[in-house]
Task: inverse folding
């Protein structure tokens, strides 16, 4: 079983280099996999399945082709694209995952999540997350016109950037006690998530056991986690790319347990 995991591409028309890198990844790496996991914030913003930006059509065609070729593709909502719905999932041939998804990997019991749920010290963000994830808020938002939704999305992104700049780094990272509690409550041997833009492999905080793999955001580098029967390997490659991910380098690895 070969799996790839990616997150935090923040696809945006203003970043053609990231779009191109993802396209190359979907051509070069993804077809080799049995499963591809997209763990949130794949899009910089998503205002509804009825408002697909033109720049995404080639990428969506590539994802459909990948799914039709037999690769199972999974999508988990992030804090930027929590409005991706079943309509888009069916169009792309991908499976939507719950905000906390459990699988079994070579490392044992594994929990997949976007990761923002673990930033519990950021109280203001957690209140905002609860609001926008509510059915009532989403129904009211989706009832607006596309133009109105775009305006709201712009306002929310601007507010997020301003607030993020004012917060200490430890506030925007995961809370160790939240990680430890999750690992213990789920009896997880491994947690995989994105969101924090701090790619690394960490041992879970005591008294929990196991490990946590943080996926990287696609900015100056693209990141992907490759996982097979030998373990997990976190790779980076430089942007921009041409036709191949020629600058791929292994950054962190987690071997199969003995």
Result:
């Amino acid at each position: 079983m070969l799996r790839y995991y990616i997150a935090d591409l923040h696809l945006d028309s203003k970043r053609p280099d990231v779009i191109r890198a993802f396209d190359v990844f979907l051509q070069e790496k993804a077809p080799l996999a049995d499963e591809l996991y997209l763990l949130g914030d794949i899009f910089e913003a998503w205002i509804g399945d009825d408002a697909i930006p033109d720049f995404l059509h080639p990428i969506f065609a590539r994802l459909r082709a990948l799914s039709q070729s037999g690769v199972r593709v999974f999508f988990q909502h992030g804090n930027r694209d929590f409005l991706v719905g079943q309509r888009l999932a069916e169009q792309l041939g991908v499976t939507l995952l719950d905000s906390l998804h459990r699988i079994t990997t070579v490392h044992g019991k594994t929990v997949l999540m976007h990761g923002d749920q673990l930033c519990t010290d950021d109280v203001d963000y957690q209140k905002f997350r609860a609001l926008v994830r509510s059915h009532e808020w989403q129904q009211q938002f989706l009832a607006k016109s596309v133009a109105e939704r775009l305006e709201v999305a712009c306002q929310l992104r601007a507010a997020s950037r301003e607030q993020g700049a004012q917060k200490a780094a430890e506030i925007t990272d995961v809370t160790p006690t939240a990680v430890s509690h999750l690992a213990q409550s789920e009896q997880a041997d491994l947690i995989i998530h994105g969101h924090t833009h701090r790619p690394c492999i960490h041992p879970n905080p005591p008294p929990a056991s196991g490990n946590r793999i943080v996926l990287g955001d696609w900015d100056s580098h693209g990141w992907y986690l490759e996982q097979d029967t030998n373990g997990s390997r976190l790779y980076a490659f430089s942007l921009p790319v041409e036709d191949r991910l020629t600058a791929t380098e292994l950054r962190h690895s987690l071997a199969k347990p003995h």
